[in-house]
């Protein structure tokens, strides 16, 4: 089944009704295709996660009215994604703490890069916000996992959510160990700008 979400007015204007079969015949494709990026999912209100969006996903992203994007991959994003960010005046966070190497780093993510990413996430002045990496699995899963830990989730629930996005290969134990070891007490958060869903869970 297609993941496309189409405008019903487009469907009506480009179709004719067949009384005998009670079906509509679509004579033309819809004018706009709205397709979410790979592994897209809402995390909390106005906070989203995904893999790297491609051109076909841009119409979908426009509907989110994004103010900021966190890019977690070491690799540079595709040119069409950078153009979309520039054309829509989206604040772009990248290379957050990647220059800091510590004993608990994994695949370019370190405690410092997680801390910097979470401090962007806990500030609603950056919302609506998308967190993404190449496939939206391990790096994004690490950041969201640490956010869940900040929210007070137990580690079993954090691991279950992380593994839902990892595909047939499953999760990586190093990711789960990094999440478990991360000290959420290091996060600097201004209560004035913190999301309601976070302040309620940390009381």
Task: Please provide a written account of the structure.
- This protein is an alpha/beta fold and 203 residues long.
- The chain has a domain of 139 residues: Protein-Tyrosine Phosphatase, Chain A, CATH 3.90.190.
- Helices cover 36% and strands 15% of the residues.
- It is built from eight helices and seven strands.
- The protein has a five-stranded mixed beta sheet, covered by helices on one side. Strands 1-2 form a two-stranded antiparallel sheet.
- Helix 5 runs antiparallel to helix 6 and helix 5 packs parallel to helix 7.
- The radius of gyration is 20 Å and the shape is globular.
- The N and C termini lie far apart (43 Å).
- The N terminus is likely disordered.
Give me the CATH fold name of the domain at 31-96 and 110-182: Protein-Tyrosine Phosphatase, Chain A
| Alpha-beta classification | alpha/beta
Radius of gyration: 20 Å
Name the CATH architecture of the domain at 31-96 and 110-182.
Alpha-Beta Complex
Poorly predicted segments: 1-18, 100-106
End-to-end span in angstroms? 43 Å
EC number: 3.1.3.48
Subcellular location: Cytoplasm
GO molecular function: protein tyrosine phosphatase activity
Keywords: Cytoplasm, Hydrolase, Protein phosphatase, Stress response
